Amino acid sequence: MLKDGRLTEAYTSIRKGKPTSLYLVHFEEEDFYKIGITQQRLETRFLSYPKHTVIEVLTFDALEIAKEVEQEILKAVKPFKYEPLVFRCGSTECFQCPEVKSITDLVAYAEAWK
Fold first, then answer.
1. How many angstroms separate the CA atoms of 32 and 63, rounded?
2. Element housing 71 (H / E)
């Protein structure tokens, strides 16, 4: 998150002004989804989690834009929050819901649920 023009600890590995990916990933073993942002390749980001499917990746020109979109989505899926048993890094961005095929599907499901 940005604070006074600087990145807080959670985003120290992400550089401002560099293209940033917003991703939606499904983890089959525990049947949950994770939404997040990264500037790494997703293959690298989830190397130690072999049973996952990348549902969708959107690329933004800068961290600030990706983070803003991510926060709006996380607000929408807050009722479906899930605490994974083994997944720790970024676990606050995890949730369970019926199968979705895109980020747009996810947001539509959350809006309809309200």
1. 25
2. helix 63-76
**Percentage of the chain exceeding pLDDT 90:** 51
Q: What is the 3-state secondary structure (H, E, C) of 14-67?
A: CCCCCCEEEEEEEECCCCEEEEEEECCCHHHHCCCCCCEEEEEEEEECCHHHHH
| 68: its two tokens | 């803003």
- Enter the pTM of the model: 0.81
Do 49 and 86 meet the contact criterion of CB atoms below 8 Å apart? Answer: no
Convert the pLDDT of each residue in 54-89 to its tens digit.
999 999 998 889 999 999 999 999 999 999 887 666
81 three-class SS: strand
